[in-house]
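ARCHIVE CARD
CATEGORY: sequence design from structure
SOURCE FIELD: tokenized fold
FIELD CONTENT:
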């Protein structure tokens, strides 16, 4: 898709607004009590408006004042090469290491799968409901209060869900069959927090949610859709690739290893 990665990064930043945000030129500092890497990293999509060493020091001080590790979100091309090699070099020289390589995928709403007779029932709500939040919290640890603020903090958002199916197993019932949050921004819909209950996977629930998003986009004249997926999540990449999404660009988080854990890479006896 012919959209500049830095421009898309700013669209995506609105899709996951941090609790506290500050500007350093074109950089965006974000803090959210440690909840999610995105909510607790400086997005370096642009120029900080000052020499790099000074900008890195400002960021480090900003995070230290909040008792958070300084974490830099760098934009990469689709293959994973940083688009700002000078910043990459500066940070790696300071001992920062890359973590959580992520891929931004995009699709035209018109190319997403269509709803069919076989599609699962999908409900959409502008409000964050308790069952949706419970389903979200079932697969990741959340910081209560902060998670709700981020999930409802975009320009506008919708919460889509597939109801729980009949309990066919002796496993504990899942709160919902599948969920996804859709962040809306002029011209864009962003898919966040897509999750299908483990016992309901490979039954077309994710496809059904994406088809419902496609339908909403077409009805509301939203041409383009994005999502973020970890590069290592081959199942999700395979699934979204089959639904019309293509690799657009990437992201890397750079953080310094926690000093007190750096020497503890293997088990060793502790003696007096
Ligand atoms: C990734 C995920 C959302 C897919 O949901 P799903 O409901 O199982 O997906 P669907 O049934 O709609 O699958 C559609 C197609 O995607 C592909 N696909 C789905 N899961 C796959 C897997 N584990 N491995 C390979 N391909 C897969 C297949 O082509 C599948 O079609 P098929 O079943 O006819 O072969 C689900 O596995 C999940 O919730 N994973 C954990 C959370 C997660 O990774 N979310 C994505 C965050 S970006």
């Amino acid at each position: 898709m012919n959209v500049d990665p830095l421009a898309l990064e700013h669209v995506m930043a609105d899709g996951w607004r941090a609790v506290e945000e500050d500007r350093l030129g074109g950089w965006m500092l974000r803090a959210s009590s440690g909840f999610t890497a995105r909510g607790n990293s400086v997005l370096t999509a642009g120029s900080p408006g000052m020499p790099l060493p000074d900008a890195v020091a400002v960021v480090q001080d900003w995070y230290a004042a909040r008792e958070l590790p300084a974490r830099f979100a760098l934009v990469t091309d689709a293959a994973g090469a940083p688009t700002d090699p000078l910043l990459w070099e500066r940070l790696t020289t300071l001992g920062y290491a890359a973590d959580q390589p992520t891929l931004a995928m995009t699709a035209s709403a018109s190319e997403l799968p269509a709803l069919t007779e076989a599609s699962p029932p999908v409900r959409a709500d502008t409000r964050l409901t308790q069952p949706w939040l419970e389903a979200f919290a079932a697969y990741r640890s959340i910081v209560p209060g902060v998670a709700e603020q981020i999930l409802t903090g975009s320009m506008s958002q919708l919460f889509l869900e597939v109801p729980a199916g009949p309990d066919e197993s002796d496993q504990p019932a899942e709160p919902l069959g599948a969920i996804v949050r859709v962040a809306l921004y002029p011209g864009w819909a962003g898919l966040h927090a897509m999750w299908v209950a483990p016992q309901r996977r490979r039954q077309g629930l994710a496809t059904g949610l994406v088809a419902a998003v496609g339908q909403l986009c077409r009805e509301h004249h939203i041409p383009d859709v994005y999502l973020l997926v970890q590069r290592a999540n081959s199942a999700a990449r395979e699934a979204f690739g089959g639904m019309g999404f293509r690799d657009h660009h990437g992201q890397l988080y750079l953080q310094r290893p926690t000093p007190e854990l750096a020497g503890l890479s293997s088990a060793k006896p502790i003696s007096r």
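CARD ANNOTATION: The mean pLDDT is 93. Residues 194-196, 201-207, 227, 229, 233, 235-236, 238-239, 242 surround coenzyme A (CB under 6 Å).
SHELF: design records, drawer C
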